[in-house]
Amino acid sequence: MRGLLGKLKCNNYKVLIAAFSIIRPGVAQSGMMREYIFRHNHPTKFEYFHEVFEKELGETYGIMVYQEDVIKIAI
C-alpha cells in the first residue's frame, strides 16, 4: 500500500480512497491498477475509450475503480 501511495503521490482524500479500491486483487491482476497510476500521473497522455467514460468516469480517468462505476457505464 505504501508503494502504491508513493506512486500516486497521494495528496488528498479522493486519491487515498481510489488507492484503497484499486489495490484489491481483481483490479490489480487485471492491469487496471497500473493504468490508473499512469493516467493519474499523466492526465493528458491518454484518450478515453468513449465519450461516456469521460463524462461518467472523469474523476477516475476513465478507469472503473469503484463498483458503482460499472453501473454508471451500464446505464
Could you walk me through the main structural features you see in this protein, from its secondary elements to its overall organization?
The mean pLDDT is 86. The longest helix is centred in the N-terminal third of the chain and has 10 residues. The protein has six helices and no strands. It is globular and about 35 Å long. It is mainly α. The N and C termini lie far apart (32 Å). It has one domain.
Largest sheet composition: none
Low-pLDDT ranges: none
Number of helices: 6
How many domain units? 1
Radius of gyration: 12 Å
- Basic shape: globular
Number-wise, the strands total 0
N- to C-terminal distance: 32 Å
Q: Secondary-structure element sequence?
A: HHHHHH
**Mean pLDDT reading:** 86
The amount of beta strand, in percent, is under 5%
| Oligomerization category of the chains in this entry | single chain
Report the helical percentage.
55-70%
What key phrases describe this protein's structure?
single chain; 75 residues; mainly alpha; globular
Blueprint of the fold:
Blueprint: H1 2-8, H2 13-22, H3 25-30, H4 32-41, H5 51-57, H6 67-74
Structure summarized in a few sentences:
The chain is mostly helical and 75 residues long. Helices cover 64% and strands 0% of the residues.
